Amino acid sequence: MVPNSKNDWVALGFVSYVERLVASPLVACTWEQATATQHEQHIVPDACVDLIWAGGRLTVAGPDTRPRVVTLESASRLVGARLRPGTAGAILGLPASELCNVSPDAAEVLGRDVAAALLEELAGGLDPHALLLRAVYLRGAELDPLVRAAVVALGRPRARVDPVAAELGVSARQLHRRVSDAVGYGPKMLQRVLRFRRLQALAPAPLVELALDAGYADQAHMTAEVTQLAGVSPVRFLKDRTPTAA
User: Cβ of 127: how many Cβ atoms within 10 Å?
Assistant: First the structure.
């Protein structure tokens, strides 16, 4: 779950958003967002899953394959823990593909008793960042080393699924199953999203240079991909966008 154009929102006084980076193989960061007025927030794919506390509700934001808009009510506060790509299946104890493009109540994923106990702790006024992190660590996840290697390999510029599968010593079908279970979608979609994230992290430059540096075939390829994943043109998206932790 990644906010889009958050710098503009902060400047206008609508939203404050801050991340706390975490040195962990499981969690990229915790984050907190507050809104002064009702706000429509644009979300773009980032290959991550978030555990989010919003007042009396605890949800799991699954991995997105397309942009979406979430309406945040005025005077709202959200705190989340962002799981690293490829960790969600092990941490949550279910195929992450079941969470693709959905945000179920945490009770449906963690179990009713676990979610209720965590909500009670969060309502007690203690540090929600620490509580969400502890909840993740208590899951006792054992990460799939092949998936971890696949995330690194598919994040390289111009990576392709079949060569990555061969490099890791598995068939393309096996790679698809294990990545889907861990990430929420297959290696081809993961490669596209990681390339999209790589584009966001590049320093400003002419679009044709950005396209090639990020690993797109050309500027037209980048335009088509960004439009599909962000819902806007690369010019507009890159003008407003600030990368977040993942």
Answer: 12
For 205-230, the pLDDT digits (tens) are 999 999 999 999 999 999 999 999 99
Q: Quote the pTM value.
A: 0.90
* Burial status of residue 49 (CB atoms within 10 A of its CB: 0-12, 13-18, 19 or more): buried
Is residue 176 within 8 Å of 186, Cβ to Cβ?
yes
Positions in the chain short of pLDDT 70? 1-14, 242-243, 245-246
Contact 140, 102 (CB under 8 A): no
How far, in Å, CA of 125 to CA of 123, rounded?
Answer: 6
Q: List all residues 6 or more positions away from 105 whose beta carbon is below 8 Å from its beta carbon.
A: 57, 58, 59, 60, 115
Give the residue carrying structure tokens 């932790």: 245
Question: Taking Cα atoms as reference points, which of 187, 185, 191 lies closest to residue 157?
Answer: 191
List, as one string, the DSSP characters of 35-61: ESS-EEEEEE--S-EEEEEETTEEEEE
Per-residue pLDDT at 141: 87
The CA dihedral of 30, 151, 6, 67, to the nearest 10 degrees, is -120
Tell me which H or E stretch contains 83. strand 76-83
142 neighbors 93 (Cβ within 8 angstroms)? no
Q: Give 91's contacts (C-beta < 8 A, 6+ positions apart).
A: 26, 83, 136, 139, 141
Longest dimension (CA), the chain: 53
Helix (H) or strand (E) run with residue 28 in it? strand 27-35
